[in-house]
Structures
1.
Amino acid sequence: MRLAYFDCFSGISGDMALGALLGAGAPGEVLHEVWRSLPLQRWSYQLEKTTVNGIEAVDVTIRSEEEQPHRHLSDVLEIIQASSASARAKGWASEVFRRLAQAEAQVHGTTVERVHFHEVGAVDAIADILGVCVLLDALGVDAVECSPLPMSRGFVQAAHGVIPVPPPAVMELLKGVEVVPDDAVQGETVTPTGAALMVTLAQRFGGFPRMRIEQVGYGAGKKRFEARPNLLRVVVGEKVPDLPTQETVLIEVNLDDMNPEWYPAVQGRLFEAGALDVYYTPIQMKRGRPGTQLSVLCEPGREVALLEVLFRETTTFGARFSRWQRLCLERRWETVQTRYGEVRVKVGLWNGKEVTASPEYADCAARAEEHGVSLKEVYEEAIRGYRPVQGE
């Protein structure tokens, strides 16, 4: 799978995205052909190489000679369809504008059909959005991923007057998307056009993906920052299949003054509150005191509920957090008939092939209790009963 990763360490705008894709080897002649086919009057563009903090980048500038009309979504979609872009590029660009219209409508308290595009209905927004989609298509990109977007502070002049940064439309677009604080820059770093492109096209927001890097390009922003280069980096290459991992949170507390009789009750309460796993590790604490490290593994978002249990049920005064990746085998359940009764067997699969099997403890314990035999005997009987079924 061919992947384009947008590394937005200084934010993203439409012209920066265009420049980065051109820098990564996207064919400029395809872009020129599509732009010339647009039914728009009196506008021009300039593509030139520049250097920002010693890094070569492509700077894209789009100008219009007269004020553009306030277009509705239907007007913009007609312009896109009239272009010579491929069907895939037209589909992407149309969806980007629909997402943008939804955000603008929500911000202004109107409907998608009635919302007026101001800055985003201008020539530069149409050229930027359609151009990015055209270049992604020309590069043969199958998937887009994006880094967490930086949220700067300040104010910007817009059609309705001075508005806060990030602009309201950007905040609306980024609902549900991972972002990071950016206190080093005063002013706009993520534009509505850039946000709409990424929330529509990106399949994932996060750290650098597993991929074989083939091409790298930089697009230049118009502002210059003291804190860092105002560039957008696009990395294109073949995606390496991800391991089927799950993101988890590890919460740890150290205890040296808690009654050990409390531990089973604490463990039960933690599982009730959503813990995936709870375990203990003997440790040596300060002043030579033996202690216990209580570790709780959970899904992101469950931390507060589990901390409430830890602070209420244990003697800890604090907790540590870390994020971990967890990989679990695909699982299925088989039921085998033994001379002691039915026992479920948990089967683990890797890449569709069975690699391990384990009788369910609770079933084995219950059958052992019922028949007055050892747990080990029931366990071994279940394994013997499963293996012939496996071979059939």
2.
Amino acid sequence: MPSFDNPMMMRQVIMDHYEHPRNKRVIDHPLARSKRMDTSGCIDDIVVYLHVENDVIKDVSYEGVACTISTASTSIMTELLVGKTRKEATNIIDAYLNMIYERPYDASILGEAVVFMYTYKQASRIKCATLGWTGAQALLKEEQ
């Protein structure tokens, strides 16, 4: 995996996920659950979908309108969580949120999500960078 400590590389990853979002669609499955997430200070208004079967995330997606940061972070999240157990997904989400809020975290499980490691420097962007993640987190807690 390439190093994402280069600001230009980080920007390229973010813009790629914004311009070509992954898993931006509705999950049409009877076991899929959804959670609407929005922000008051930005255009973000998305629905996060999660399909868990036998304690494994079979599919995760989202739809709606969101800013660059929210779209890119949610797109990256969808790729990271598919195929993970509930526990693995929870660990990834916790690590991501710890990174955003400047707490100790395991970067080795975050893949491309580490491009948001400096989000804490822009307090107004924290909600955008965590919107999809907190939606997935809430869905995982509901599923228990």
